[in-house]
Amino acid sequence: MIELLRRLFGLLVALSCALAASASGQRTILAVGAHAGDVELTSGALLAKQHRLGDRVVILHLTLGEGGNPRLAPDRYADQKRREAVDAAAALGAEVLFGPYRDGELPDDDAARRYVADVIRAVKPSVVITHWHESIHKDHAAASRIVADAVLLASLEGVKTEHPPFRGVRSVWYAENWEDASGFQPYISVDVTSAMDTWRTAVTKYEFVRGGVSDFRYLDYYDALSIVRGALARKGRAEAFDIDASGKRRILDSLP
Q1: Which of 61, 79, 114, 176 could form a disulfide with 36 if both were Cys (CB 3.0 to 4.6 A apart)?
Q2: Are 62 and 104 in contact (CB under 8 A)?
């Protein structure tokens, strides 16, 4: 009898939490990066802020970016970056998933689209964040195309994957990345002033951000970029995102 009461109490607590989340308008955000570190640098402050506001945040790294360290073999660097990604996600308050693909070899094919579609069906995000369409890095450009198509595939009854169809993605946002700059327009800016300390703690879990792998000053660049975007948005710090042109259409009956 006592065990039954415990189970009933547990169910009531779970139901209460679910109802509270629903009442508070909790969202689920899925951020998909080509390599571990991509989404944390470009949208990590937003993810940290939304986690603080009660949203669920999930990060999917399609590859670990294991080919980027000239002093370590890819397998060894993959182990390191997986550990760093787990630590960075924990700092942001995010869950983390790892795709099955290799750095520089992200396949721009139907199988990859089905894989991401199934992740979308499992996670059930209302907002998806990924790379902009155009990039000097083939994995970034492929990731953008894969994610955009996967959102559609996830919604279709005829596309069979492990999880059932999901039609709840309301929007896809493209993060600002120095390698994806061609054609990017900062259509949306989000005030992330309050989350910058958390962002810095998270991204510096990665050695390449701290300056131990590449001579590109990742931390300085994205820190400075948040100041620039914040100045333009009349905020302290901001992260900027673009959306598809079709999402920028507005239909009005009169002047707003």
Answers
A1: 61
A2: no
